[in-house]
Amino acid sequence: MTGRPPRLGLRENLAQFVLLVAVNALVGGMYGQERTVLPLLAETEFGLTRYSGVLTFILAFGATKAVANYAAGALSDRFGRKPVLVGGWLIALPVPLLLMWAPSWGWVIAANVLLGLNQGLTWSTTVVMKIDLVGPARRGLAMGLNEAAGYVAVAATALATGYIAARAGLRPEPFFLGVAFAALGLGLSTLLVRETRDHARLEAANHVGRADGRHAHLHAGLPSRQILAQVSYREPALSAASHAGMVNNLMDGVAWGLLPLLFARAGLPVAQIGVLAALYPAVWGFGQLATGALSDRTGRKPLIVTGQFLQAAALALVAIGDSFPVWAVAVVLLGAGTALVYPTLLATIGDVAHPAWRARAVGVYRLWRDGGFVVGALVAGLIADAYGLTAAVWAVAALTTASGIGVAVRMYETHTPVPGRSR
């Protein structure tokens, strides 16, 4: 630590903010190493023929990530942000090694339990740390940059592993990238990242509630069980964001686990499947560079509703498509819709939650959001087994449409422009 008192603002904390962007890119790379290769491994090397069986790795990942998200919020409020971040990277170290040499599918599931813990602890903590640093004026921009870094890295790694697999095979070479990401992430987090909890305390000390008194009941001393209730079902904006996040990741789980199989069934080569697997998070990632900041100017709700309807339309196009060009357009639209939704939901949580318990609120939101992987793996897997891959995609499109309607009806606008946004 430098000994200087903390100051809020992007410019005032630029060096640490950029460092945390880089760290979150490495977090995304750990996730991206699986996006192209693992669904194909399930069938070709491990002989899994039922879609519900293939999706067990996503179920394991989503369940542990959801729990880790919740734990990350509570632990970072109690012990600080940096210890949680470093702990998450320590858990990541065995993941690529297990994926390289797994003798059975059970080992792959074990690797995804560890990956879920890594993603929950590290990604949640980088979210909280960036919100801590920038203060209320640039929250949408901060979340856009954070999520852009993570998902551009997901896309780049998915593309790279697809090309590596096309040339060298599905294992072990594609997972060499994961070894490098884990080592670099641990090193940067341990040696260079600084604690940000004092920034949250500074904001809490100067916190001013909404002029309309809407958040008066969300005071600094709210206990954890009340935070869980408010974010899950009581507070309209917080709970609407949580449920929209769950549907978003339900959709993402299908894109991760089933769409590569759908494309393979149509006869696309591994390299083209890798391109499609990368296009979706690439558009999602780069799009967030604009959408996070846009939500600071236009508000959160319009972007969330528009994004969910665009996601549903993209899934419908996937379902009716039958060629690489059509699917390329569909995944680009899917990425654009997700770019509108993803950082804006996080910014909504930051808008409403009191700084004193914001980390725990982010943890509860991400518990719900990543629980969508579990629901998606179960529901979509069973539908795909019974009625086929296309039916599963249509079902998720319908759920996404319903979620967009729910946000339109229930969520109020949470963002009020704050003086000093030029910071």
UniProtKB/TrEMBL annotation:
- Which terms in the Gene Ontology molecular function aspect does this entry carry? transmembrane transporter activity
Q: Where is the Major facilitator superfamily (MFS) profile domain?
A: 17-415
**UniProt keyword terms in alphabetical order:** Cell membrane, Membrane, Transmembrane, Transmembrane helix, Transport
Determine the domain of life of the protein's source: Bacteria
* PROSITE patterns per record: MFS (PS50850), SUGAR_TRANSPORT_1 (PS00216)
- Where, subcellularly, is it found? Cell membrane
User: Membrane topology for this entry?
Assistant: Multi-pass membrane protein
Q: Name one GO cellular component term.
A: plasma membrane
**What InterPro entries does the record point to?**
MFS, MFS_dom, MFS_trans_sf, MFS_Transporters, Sugar_transporter_CS
What sections of the protein cross the membrane? 12-31, 51-72, 84-101, 107-128, 148-169, 175-193, 303-320, 326-346, 393-412
Q: Does the keyword Ribosomal protein apply?
A: no
Is Membrane set as a keyword in this record? yes
Q: Which residues form a coiled coil?
A: none
PANTHER family found in the cross-reference section: INTEGRAL MEMBRANE TRANSPORT PROTEIN (PTHR23517:SF3), RESISTANCE PROTEIN MDTM, PUTATIVE-RELATED-RELATED (PTHR23517)
Protein name, per record: Putative MFS family arabinose efflux permease
